Amino acid sequence: MKIAEALSMRADLAKRIGQMEERLRNSSKVQEGETADEDVCELLKELDGLVKQQETLIYRINKTNMLTEVNGETLTRKIAHRDMLSSHLKVVSNLLHHLMDRNGRYSRSEIKDVKTIDVKDVRQLFDNLSKQLRETDTAIQGINWNVDLLDE
């Protein structure tokens, strides 16, 4: 199995575990004289199995990411770099939106806001970070579809 397939399975398991909470809630209390749609003990066993599958899968993904090297960098390092780029881009994007906000004055007597940085420079930084993020994410996706998931 490739890393990309394991990541898809991990997302599916997380979704199924989330659904288990609702199923447990619906079956754990019923009105007097009624019966639950599902056996709570069976649901708890199913939940336990799903959580164990997810734990094993997460461990295998993390282990594979730590031991997979591409151009002298581990996949874990590339993922950390992508996450950092994403955070950096979000802050710069918010700054750009703030700078572009046209906070109009109602009269000449109101205080005028002035920009302390050139919007063009911020936009250029935004574009550069966006490009780096796209390239890094594409590289990670390529690796994910080409590297086999390691065993425990």
What does this structure look like?
A hairpin with a 2-residue loop joins strand 1 (69-70) and strand 2. The chain has a two-stranded antiparallel ribbon with strand order 1-2. The chain has one domain. It has helices spanning 3-28, 40-67, 75-100, 119-146, and strands at 69-70, 73-74. Helix content is 71%, strand content 3%. The protein is flat.
SSE inventory with pairings:
Blueprint: H1 3-28, H2 40-67, E1 69-70, E2 73-74, H3 75-100, H4 119-146
Antiparallel strand pairs: 1-2
Helix pairs in contact: 1-2, 3-4
How would you briefly describe this protein structure?
The protein contains 4 helices and 2 strands. The chain has 152 residues and is mostly helical.
Structural descriptors:
2 strands, 152 residues, 4 helices, flat, two-stranded antiparallel sheet, mainly alpha
Bin the strand percentage.
Answer: under 5%
Principal-axis shape equals flat
Number of strands: 2
Q: Which assembly state applies to the chains in this document?
A: single chain
- Count of helical segments? 4
Distance between the termini: 13 Å
Helix proportion range = over 70%
Residue-averaged pLDDT, rounded?
94
Topology order in helix (H) and strand (E) letters = HHEEHH
Sequence stretches where pLDDT stays below 50 over 5 or more residues:
none
Number of domains: 1
Largest sheet: 2 strands, antiparallel
Neighbour order of strands in the largest sheet? 1-2
**Helix and strand composition category:** mainly alpha
Radius of gyration: 25 Å
